[in-house]
Specification:
Elements (H helix, E strand, L loop, with lengths): L2 E11 L2 E2 L4 E2 L1 H13 L4 E6 H6 L3 H6 L3 E8 L13 H9 L5 E5 L1 H5 L21 E2 L4 H10 L20 H6 L15 E5 L1 E2 L21 E2 L2 H13 L4 E6 L21 H14 L5 E4 L1 E2 L1 H6 L1 H14 L4 E8 L3 H6 L6 H15 L10 E9 L6 H16 L6 E6 L7 H5 L2 H5 L1 H23 L5 E11 L2 E5 L7 E5 L7 E9 L3 E6 L2 E2 L5 H6 L4 H11 L5 H7 L6 H5 L2 E2 L3
Parallel strand pairs: 1-4, 1-5, 3-8, 5-6, 6-7, 8-11, 11-12, 13-14, 14-15, 15-16, 19-21, 22-23
Antiparallel strand pairs: 1-2, 9-10, 17-18, 17-20, 18-19, 20-21
Helix pairs in contact: 1-6, 8-9, 9-11, 11-13, 14-17
The site of iron/sulfur cluster (SF4) has 12 residues, from loops.
């Protein structure tokens, strides 16, 4: 039987994430395209991390008739559970495989390989000899033409894009079962869901660094198509969803989006979409959003407020609307055709804080803004860094909360205005960038975390991912989850509730809650506020404890005893 392997080298684009724990729509649509032509096709799905960890997976690749590699990072990210495939890695892997036909698709094929912030993408010519075909158009569209043509690679138009959003409807539904092959399936896998692509601002050229305007004005997926895809994923065991693949969720089905740079949001469409998702996935565990345009929110406060309320009604808490601010320097805004002024961003922050800052059932605020800043843009000077810092300080002083502040350097992508500028400005302002980042970390981010989650706050369902020294790192599942360091070695791939005890610049320290004092490690007990090393050693020597009274009497003095008791439980 014809064997096909989809190798997921992960994608990270301004409007789509596919680095674990996320799975992007790319492999799902491609699997759907294959199954719609070959109902019983034998498709293997592998991630680049599976191959990095276990070279035996190369056997799966070598026994395939066709390998489809998905790759491409066009925004720089920080990752905990996986890292996008590099061009060298892909060449090395492909060169070991002489039998199968090899195809590359994804953002790397369109725009080249992003390596890291501040560096130009590596041209696709670098990897072209390793592949039989590079799909510069849409993977599922070109592949379905390949299947129709009975694998006539020679005459295929590899730059073909989908006709419209409805073209992917059946592929999205059919391909949903590929998620079962992901190593994070089912408990720790988030499916990125597309609602549209293209940006209303493409009519005026879009932002100088962004590839999205090359897709034209928005092409919305019908509400029913999205809901049917969610249902298919849910029926296949998926419980975590992010409605994240679009430039601005507030602009979904917005009126006149092909004519207006800031189209009027459509609250009714959002209500139908989110209520329909909830109905078709009643016991979902995560429903989050991603990008939002602060310029649109500021222009349409009443529609935006209604949309925020709708999102909060159906989502799960800890949700983040990521605002692409990039810069508040008026000179940089105008030279790069950015989407919002500082006043507009502030108005959008205020609106979201008013509606979304209340804590939800998992201990996190319902819906907060996150801000993305991009450096290295045209017109940037030392003054830009001062203005951006003053703006952040103003947000802090007004007591508004931000879930995250993302500070990065631009990746100059082919086809954008920034490509011609390259990394000239980045190199010139490197020291300003580093100083700014440090100052924001040290004087704003940490303090903001303290305001958002005061000591003693409880957070639920922290998934443990990694050990480092005597610490366990975990996060809640969702959009931009907060990194949590837990003193002690806890079982990985488990869920814990925790209580906050301390703060890093972009993370918190917390202990499991409640702590089973008869079983916890010394590191965990020692970390409970008011215990410390000596008391922890004494507690270890005197356990097991029958009850809290016996535990209290075993402590050397009664200082902070009531505070300490709030962290612990006694199980026999
Ligand atoms: S608003 Fe700017 S950054 Fe956002 S998708 Fe459109 S062009 Fe890209």
């Amino acid at each position: 039987m014809f064997k096909i392997t989809i190798l997921d080298g992960y994608v990270d684009e301004p409007t789509c994430l596919g680095v674990p724990p996320y799975i992007s729509p790319y492999p799902r649509y491609i699997a759907g395209a294959i199954w719609s032509f070959f109902k019983s096709a034998n498709i293997s799905y592998l991630t680049i991390d599976q191959i990095r960890k276990d070279k035996n997976f190369i056997q799966v690749l070598s026994k395939s008739d066709l390998i489809i590699v998905i790759a491409g990072m066009s925004v720089p990210g920080r990752y905990l559970s996986g890292f996008p495939a590099s061009p060298n890695e892909i060449i090395y892997l492909m060169n070991q495989l002489s039998g199968p036909k090899k195809i590359l698709t994804g953002p790397a094929a369109k725009f080249g390989f992003g390596i890291s912030g501040g560096r130009k993408t590596r041209d696709i010519d670098f990897v072209k000899d390793a592949f039989d075909l590079i799909i510069k158009g849409d993977g599922e569209t070109v592949l379905s033409n390949i299947f129709k043509s009975e694998f006539d690679f020679e005459n295929i138009d590899a730059s073909k894009s989908r006709k419209n959003a409805s073209f992917i409807r059946d592929f999205a539904v059919l391909g949903s079962k590929i998620v079962k092959a992901h190593p994070n399936y089912p408990d720790y896998l988030i499916t990125e869901i597309e609602t549209y692509r293209g940006c209303p601002r493409s009519i005026i050229g879009g932002c100088s660094f962004c590839s999205e305007p090359t897709k034209g004005p928005p092409d919305f997926r019908p509400i029913k198509d999205i809901i049917d895809e969610v249902k298919a994923l849910y029926d296949n065991g998926i419980r975590h969803f992010r409605i994240g693949s679009q430039p601005c969720i507030f602009s979904y089905m917005a009126k006149d989006s092909e004519k207006n740079e800031y189209p009027q949001p459509n609250p009714d469409a959002l209500e139908k979409l989110f209520s329909g998702i909830r109905k078709s996935a009643p016991n979902l565990k995560t429903l989050h959003i991603d990008n939002a345009n602060p310029g649109t929110i500021a222009r349409y406060p009443s529609e935006s407020k209604q949309i925020c309320k709708t999102i909060i009604k159906y989502h799960t808490p800890g949700d983040v609307a990521a605002f692409g601010v990039e810069s508040v320097d008026p000179g940089v805004i105008s030279k790069n055709n950015l989407k919002a002024s500082s006043e507009e961003v502030m108005a959008a922050i205020k609106l979201l804080n008013n509606v979304g800052s209340k804590k939800g059932f998992n201990g996190m605020p319902e819906l907060l803004p996150g801000l993305n800043f991009v450096f290295g843009l045209i017109g940037e000077t030392k003054k830009t860094y001062n203005l951006d810092y003053e703006f952040l300080k103003d947000i802090f002083d007004r007591n508004f909360l931000l879930r995250r502040i993302n500070i990065r350097q631009v990746i100059p992508i082919p086809g954008t205005k920034m490509y011609d500028i390259g990394n000239k400005i980045i190199s010139k302002n490197k020291q300003h960038f580093l100083r700014f980042k440090k100052k924001v970390r040290e004087t704003i981010e940490r303090q903001m975390l303290e305001k958002m989650l005061p000591q003693g706050s409880v957070l639920n369902n922290i998934y443990t991912e990694k050990h480092q020294g005597k610490l366990t790192f975990g996060r809640q599942i969702g959009s931009y989850p907060l990194l949590i360091g837990i003193p002690g070695i806890l079982n990985l791939d488990n869920f814990f509730d925790v209580k906050v005890i301390d703060y890093g610049f972009r993370s918190i320290t917390a202990v499991p809650y409640p702590i089973d004092i008869n079983k916890a490690s010394r590191e965990t007990i020692e970390a409970i506020p008011g215990i410390g090393k000596k008391r922890a050693i004494r507690i270890l020597a005197k356990r097991p404890f029958r009850d809290k009274n016996q535990f209290s009497s075993a402590l050397d003095d009664s200082a902070n005893i009531n505070d300490i008791l709030k962290y612990i439980s006694i199980k026999n």
